[in-house]
Recover the amino acids of this structure.
């Protein structure tokens, strides 16, 4: 059970790190959203443009809130 928690934490950290890297990369928002959409499509998750924008905005606000808490 402890091993699964460690693996889950590692994978969660890896995903969060990837999202942070994409969000803070020096690219235009449109390109960033396209990269996120492509990554999600590869995982079988399909979102329309508005849903993608909402997801990106939600992730960005969560990250900004976490940074403020530090």
């Amino acid at each position: 059970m402890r091993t699964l928690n460690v693996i889950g934490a590692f994978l969660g950290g890896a995903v969060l790190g990837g999202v942070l890297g994409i969000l803070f990369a020096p690219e235009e928002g449109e390109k960033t959203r396209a990269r996120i959409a492509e990554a999600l499509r590869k995982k079988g998750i399909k979102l329309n443009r508005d849903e993608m924008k909402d997801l990106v905005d939600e992730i960005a606000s969560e990250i900004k809130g976490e940074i403020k808490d530090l």
About this structure: The chain has a mean pLDDT of 76. Residues 2-69 form one domain. The chain has one domain: 2-69. Residues 44 and 63 are 24 Å apart (CA to CA).
